Amino acid sequence: MIVLSKRKAEKIEKWMKVMETVHEGDVVSGLVTRKIKGGLLVDIGVNVFLPASQVDIRRPPDIGDYIGRRSSAWCSRSTRPGATSSSRGGS
Predict the structure, then answer these.
(1) What is the pLDDT of residues 5-20, one digit of tens each?
(2) Which of 3, 5, 16, 24 is most open to solvent, judged by the fewest CB atoms within 10 Å of its CB?
(3) pLDDT digits (tens, 9 = 90+) for 49-91
(4) In CATH, what number is assigned to the domain containing residue 28?
């Protein structure tokens, strides 16, 4: 018996689209969706991790204030699902 997951297939398809268009060093823009341990999740078509230390030049007292805001960041790693981004200048 083969078990198929529509949700997982859609997630992989979205990730492949992002991998085709976004490369390491590119600037991406997305909506901050959640605060998680160590940083934020930003939706750029798929959820990517934005470390708390990279949210701003100085670490804000409460990164939860960024939830619901649009954020631009540069992609520092894009080799697998769960890419990492940084909004502290890279260019």
Answers:
(1) 888 888 888 888 888 8
(2) 3
(3) 888 888 888 878 888 888 999 988 887 765 555 555 555 544 4
(4) 2.40.50.140
Domain ranges, residue 50: 6-86
Residue 64 lies in a domain: yes
d(Cα 50, Cα 28) in Å, to the nearest integer?
Answer: 12
Tokens of 82: 């769960």
pTM of the model: 0.70
Q: How many domains does the chain have?
A: 1
DSSP alpha helix (H) spans, 1-91: 6-21
Is there a domain that residue 1 lies in?
Answer: no
20: tokens are 């085709």
In the DSSP assignment, the letter for residue 68 is T
Q: How far apart are CA 23 and CA 76, in angstroms?
A: 9
Is 91 domain-assigned? no
